[in-house]
Amino acid sequence: MDQVNVTRNETGNATAADEYEWTQEVMFKIRTAVLLLIVIMAVLGNLLVIVSVMRHRKLRVITNYFVVSLAFADILVAMVVMPFNFSVQFYNEWIFGTVICDLWNSSDVYFTSTSILHLCCISVDRYYAIVKPLKYPIKMTKKMAFVMLAATWLSPITISYAPIFMGWYTTKEYIQTRELNQCEFKVNKPYAVISSSISFWIPCTIMIFTYLAIFKEANRQEKALHARAGNAMLMHRHSREVGDKNGALHINANTPTKDRNILKMKREHKAARTLGIIMGAFILCWLPFFLFYVSTSLCDTCQYPEVVTVIMFWTGYFNSALNPIIYAYFNRDFRNAFKNTLACAFCSFCKRSASDLDAMERLDRRSSAQLRVPIPSRRASDLASL
């Protein structure tokens, strides 16, 4: 009887062990597939952004200089940073030595800081475009944009490659006890506070205040547009009473210019909304990581599972793949450019080139402008929709 019980126990333990191994294998495959998908999405999506801006003249504006540079930084994150983290998850150890470990940690800090500084530049660009539109052509020139981009790419070196390769970022105990098959980013308290402030906290504070000012001004302009639309409808009603027999609308020479200003203002608002969503997505992806990074660096006795670190890192990495999706969903110009670029990429003969797309957009705008003047009802409905 005892022998039977022992046999049953051994069989049960073997079955439990088999189920555990099967579960671990399935989880490993799912994790590998998800991480590879994030890498591929980040590379292809941001490459699509760069190619689309290069191919379509309508997208070649100063704001999109920062967007293209941000996309390039996200591509480098996917190609330089993510593969090393993926190798750690695949092999469960570090296999590249201490020098590559320092290079990987430096690149991780560098590109994260570069991304958020790009978003900070974009918020400043949108601030001048909407809150101070008269100063925008003077302040935000191509030369100023290139100066801002140069500062964005060069300044993060001071908290990434320089302190990490010099050993200023970590403790003496970690340098003396670090192992070849481990690549931990063990930082000291001063470096944790300074690097997180420069990389995240200070730029995020600037972005929050600039976008609050942007949305406050956008709401004010929106109310002004609605008031102008109401006045335009009253003018249309009066002009229809005193107009000619065909019902032609008598307008002054300044009306087309005002319409162009209104349409330009609406485009600025849409661009600010899209870039504001991108900023919000970045904060949601990286805020948990920086909270975790600062709290664990300042707390000497805190214990946490390794899986938490993996989740925090890859949640932040996922932001590099998220930006092109936001462009495609919220920005019509980018959405049309993406469709045209993908059609050219997957077709052996492109039926519609980038120049054709720009020509069609100009033709649509010209035809809509022609239809807007002679038809009073169309003009009233257009202004009411603004």
From TrEMBL:
SMART domains: 7TM_GPCR_Srsx. One of its GO terms (biological process) is positive regulation of MAPK cascade. GO terms for molecular function: octopamine receptor activity. It comes from the Eukaryota. It is found in: Cell membrane. Belongs to the G-protein coupled receptor 1 family. This is Octopamine receptor beta-2R. It comes from Parnassius mnemosyne (clouded apollo).
